[in-house]
Amino acid sequence: MKRKILSTLMMLAAAHVGAQVTDAMIANDADTPEDVLSWGMGTQGQRHSSLTDVNAKTVGRLVPVWSMSFGGEKQRGQESQPLVHKGKMFVTASYSRIFALDAKTGQKLWKYEHRLPEGIMPCCDVINRGAALYDNLVIFGTLDAQLVALNQDTGKIVWREKIDDYSAGYSYSAAPLIAEGLLITGLSGGEFGVVGRVEARDPKTGKLVWSRPTVEGHMGYLNGKENGISGTTNATWPGETWKTGGATPWLGGTYDAKTGLAYFGTGNPGPWNSHVRKGDNLYSASTIAIDVKTGKIVWHYQSTPNDGWDYDGVNEFITFDMDGKRMGAKADRNGFFYVNDAATGKLVNAFPFVKKTTWASSIDLKTGRPVYIDENRPGDPTAAGGDGKKGTTAFAAPGFLGGKNQMPMAYSPKTGLFYVPTNEWGMDIWNEPIAYKKGAAYLGAGFTIKPLFEDHIGSLRAIDPKTGKVAWEVKNNAPLWGGVMTSGDLVFWGTPEGFLKAADAKTGKVVWQFQTGSGIVAPPITWKQDGEQYVSVVSGWGGAVPLWGGEVAKKVNLLEQGGSVWTFKLMK
Ligand code: CA
Ligand code: CA
After folding, report:
1. Which of 135, 375, 501, 553 has the most crowded CB, counting CB atoms within 10 A?
2. How far is the centre of ligand 2, averaged over its atoms, from the C-alpha of 546 (Å)?
């Protein structure tokens, strides 16, 4: 009898543990199509599902099963990737909101609306890109630079931690990364002269484990003790400039269990005017690989040394196998596509993925550095012969919104191709004198962004990482701002015009589309539940383009705001 009770108790305990999200489940996320536990559909960020129920032959029967509105008057940009676990969907929304829904029916289970103070300073709309799951918690970050962990079942707050001071310009919008039992986050605020860093916490309590500054000269910490300065003070930053150096890892990171490294991209150095901080300005506009156990930078690769165009190098670093070696690929905002050895950072390949790059002619594979076209750097406002108020204007392509921006690309191990949401645009840019003031924009530059072509800005491109060849492309009138996913032999992506589209991953032939009622600026997901494949995407136009778009605004001023989740499955 005693034994029976004990075994029943153990079974109950096992069932309870089974409902919780474990490290092993997160590590296997890419290979378990019945759930989506991480941003990137797996910590490597490949955004590939092995599911093939929805394919070129069946996709004509893909129809909406439910749509759920985020409601309220807060219909701004929706850049969130939903998560799905045990039949529940967790999705974040504009103004630091999060919803739990029944994944099959869309029925709302609970919502949490973070109380935001006056005076938050998001640079690029009041967006959020998603949550993380761990144990029985769902964890997300807020525009006032806090992390909030909620009980998955009740939506009640379990812990809350402040990342930094929102009144200095810090904010948070990325989906947190979970790796090796740690909650790993970056932060936002690079337009305000803040100092970027990556932090790891205990996901169950929020307690800080390590922090690693992404600006050279600042001290890192591990378990409350000093853990070495990042780089060497003043090696790549003159004078006091490193104290307001930006380099925020605002998009969040990826993790590869094979290398034990977390990969974070970093944003622009502060201010935009590059003449006041002569030097490479490490670790801005870079990929940095951090040992998650020690919180130390193992390698870095800087795509835009001494950036003068706001070419944030935050873009996702997706690890994959090429020629039997573990590599990582990144389509950088500066218009070049990079392939680095994932363990050492050594540059293996680099090529432009947009038609025009004015700031550099190529990337030297030997040195790993860009071959600059010096005359295309915007001028120094204090140069001799000038008025001291404005430097010479330069035309730059890509414009500062980038050859690619926050919208994550996808990799298909079936085709060996990356599916990259690209944009073709340029800008006039000039520098102005600037002094740092806490909580004020720290740019020292002015700009007007403009399209390069009449018929399109956006283009979804299938790119071979070995050759740099574009296998196919699907052009889009408005700039693409949503992410990509592959499922079986199909590629899914959304457009600002409101369509969720599917194309054949090999040929690019568009085989399906559906109008979601507002612009899509978020990445789709897919999963299988009770024997049926589901596809979901968040719809809601916004983000940086309508706020900063200059002449591009003409292409997008007809688009309507929204805020909803759409879910599809095959009609029987
Ligand atoms: Ca999974
Ligand atoms: Ca920036």
Report:
1. 501
2. 16
Tokens 């070049």 correspond to 336
CB burial of residue 60 (10 Å; 0-12, 13-18, 19+): exposed
Measured in Å, residue 524 CA sits from the centre of ligand 1 at: 14
Ligand lying nearest the CA atom of residue 266:
2
Query: For residue 271, which ligand has an atom nearest its CA?
Result: 2
Task: Determine how many CB atoms are found less than 10 A away from the CB of residue 9.
Answer: 10
Task: Please identify which of the residues 144, 280, 310, 332 carries the catalytic annotation.
Answer: 310
What is the structure's pLDDT at 547? 86
pLDDT at position 479: 97
Q: Return d(Cα 421, Cα 407) in angstroms, integer.
A: 7
Which candidate, 129, 61, 52, places its Cα nearest to that of 96? 129
Ligand nearest the Cα atom of residue 42: 1
Distance between Cα 31 and ligand 1 center (Å):
6
Measure the CA–CA gap between 152 and 259, rounded to whole angstroms: 31
Q: Residue 3's pLDDT is what?
A: 59
Q: Which tokens in the block code for residue 20? A: 């919780």
Ion ligand 2: protein residues whose beta carbon lies under 5 Å: 190, 267-268, 310, 312
- Residues 380, 384: Cα–Cα separation, whole Å: 9
The fourth-level CATH superfamily of domain 2-51+79-570 is Quinoprotein alcohol dehydrogenase-like superfamily (2.140.10.10)
**Smallest Cα–Cα separation from 46: which of 329, 288, 401?**
329
Residues of the chain falling short of pLDDT 70: 1-18
For the chain, the structural domain boundaries read 2-51+79-570
What distance in angstroms lies between residue 543's CA and the mean position of ligand 2's atoms?
Answer: 13
Residue matched to tokens 């019945």: 34
CB atoms within 10 A of CB 336: 25
Check residue 7 and give its pLDDT.
59
310 is catalytic: yes
CA 311 / ligand 2 centre spacing (Å): 7
- Counting DSSP H helices and E strands in the chain, the numbers are 4, 40
Sheet hosting strand 97-102, strand order edge to edge: 83-85, 88-93, 97-102, 108-113
Closest CA to 82 of 70, 74, 73: 70
Q: Are 369 and 363 in contact (CB under 8 A)?
A: yes
Q: Say what the pLDDT of residue 12 is.
A: 52
